[in-house]
From TrEMBL:
Signal peptide: none annotated. It is an enzyme of class 7 (translocase). The keyword Transport applies. Keywords: ATP-binding, Nucleotide-binding, Transport. Belongs to the ABC transporter superfamily. Its EC number is 7.6.2.9. GO terms for molecular function: ABC-type quaternary ammonium compound transporting activity; ATP binding; ATP hydrolysis activity. This is ABC-type quaternary amine transporter. PROSITE patterns: ABC_TRANSPORTER_1, ABC_TRANSPORTER_2.
Length: 398
């Protein structure tokens, strides 16, 4: 086995693989097969979610990576090295582990909880304290206010954040997270997810995380592994592929009939898809505007500033026609425009855009790149974007 390991080490050292599960099986002493014969890779800097019904082996998989559970057979390679050849204590210090409700030590204050691993690694007090404070800042808990509190003096969401800070303390390249945002209400959960995504975009850790929540997996993960009972890998794909092209009946049932809605969350707004009504400049005369809008056929147009870059609002065909009627032929569009009620950045997803359309009872929403006008999002645009990515499915769903 050691010869094989050396070979693999050489192969993986040049590759992009951070965690490799290679034919991994776990049978508990009572005969339960938690994981059958699992082979999958997690790439460096990738955020991978493990999802599947209760009892399908998700936590067992995670716990085998940091050797809280030993596999019955197969190999787990971490950056090319078989974890069973590592000292478990050393191994765990190099892997951040976040569990539900933070898993904090109740008798230690927050700062000391965060500094646990650096302390164990022998860092001087001044250094681990400074590191703990940096991380508390990173997770949005000012250390002056929270550092000396005890875990029971924090809300569930704050405890989770401390748990994440603690896992990051020794700057491990790999993080394992077991239902990290599970024990909090939906609003706090969403905030924690967004915060974690922000942190991940800076730190680019390799993250393997377990969740019960498919929407969380789809929102957070670069790739999602869907498992069925006995740790069988049914599909391993990026969220968009998973939702638009489920591999089999099990995956279709697991992701549910509202997968079209879920796909909104992973489909970006594409400038090419946007609607492009007539664009007018604020200085255009109402006569010109009335003609342009009539030719376009829509009942309204977008008004940009004199440079035709920044959106100022919109005018209705009715209002410019009315302006003509009341003898305001010399007037400009700028005098008749109405400001946009809201707008959306093109970096957002269709889900955010669609939800804004619904919330504000609007049929259209201007899309911006910074403060530049890009186009208009409408329900039709959402529909077209979803249809394009779906091989033959969405037409039937509608
Ligand atoms: N120590 C153990 N001894 C015996 N069986 C176990 C042990 N730990 C877990 N199992 C069993 O192994 C299977 C997988 O458990 P695991 O906790 O990995 O599943 P999971 O997918 O994380 O479940 P959940 O989503 O409910 O947390 C289950 O059938 C569970 O009952």
């Amino acid at each position: 086995m050691s010869a094989e390991t050396t070979e693999d080490h050489a192969a993986d050292a040049t590759g992009d693989v951070a965690i490799r599960l290679d034919g991994v099986r776990k049978q508990y002493p009572d005969g339960t097969v938690a994981v059958g014969d699992l082979t999958m890779d997690v790439r460096n800097g990738e955020l991978v979610a493990l999802v599947g019904p209760s009892g399908c082996g998700k936590s067992t998989i995670l716990r085998m990576v940091n050797r809280l559970v030993e596999p019955s057979s197969g190999r787990i390679l971490l950056h090319g090295t078989d974890v069973t050849h590592s000292d478990p204590v050393q191994l765990r210090r190099g892997i951040g582990y976040v569990i539900q409700a933070g898993g904090l030590l109740p008798h230690l204050d927050v700062r000391t909880n965060v500094g646990t691993v650096p302390k164990l690694l022998g860092w001087e007090s001044r250094l681990w304290r400074r590191r703990a404070d940096e991380l508390l800042d990173l997770v949005g808990l000012p250390p002056g206010e929270y550092g000396s509190r005890y875990p029971h003096e924090l809300s569930g969401g704050q405890q989770q954040r401390v748990g994440v800070a603690r896992a990051l303390a020794a700057d491990p390249p790999v993080l394992l997270m077991d239902e990290p945002f599970g024990a909090v209400d939906p609003v706090v959960r969403e905030r924690l997810q967004n915060e974690f995504l922000r942190i991940q975009s800076e730190l680019r850790k390799t993250v393997l995380f377990v969740t019960h929540d498919l929407d969380e997996a789809v929102k957070m993960a670069d790739r999602v592994a869907v498992l069925s009972a006995g740790g069988v890998l049914e599909q391993y794909a990026d969220p968009s592929t998973l939702l638009s092209d489920p591999a089999n009946e099990f995956v279709i049932r697991f992701i549910g009939s509202d997968r079209g809605l879920r796909r909104l969350a992973v489909t970006p707004i594409r400038p090419d898809d946007l609607d492009r009504p007539t664009v007018l400049a604020e200085g255009d005369g109402v006569g010109y505007a009335a003609t342009a809008l009539e030719v376009d056929g829509r009942s309204w147009g977008v008004v940009l500033d004199a440079d035709e870059v920044h959106p100022l609002g919109w005018v209705s065909r009715g209002s410019v026609t009315q302006a003509m009627r009341v003898g305001a032929r010399q007037g400009t569009v700028g005098e008749w425009l109405r400001p946009f009620a809201s707008s959306i950045q093109q970096t957002e997803t269709l889900r955010t855009g669609f939800s804004m359309l619904l919330a504000q009872d609007q049929r259209w929403l201007p899309v911006l790149d910074g403060d530049r006008y890009v186009g208009i999002l409408t329900p039709d645009v959402v529909h077209t974007a979803l249809r394009r990515g779906t091989p033959g499915h969405v037409e039937d769903d509608d």
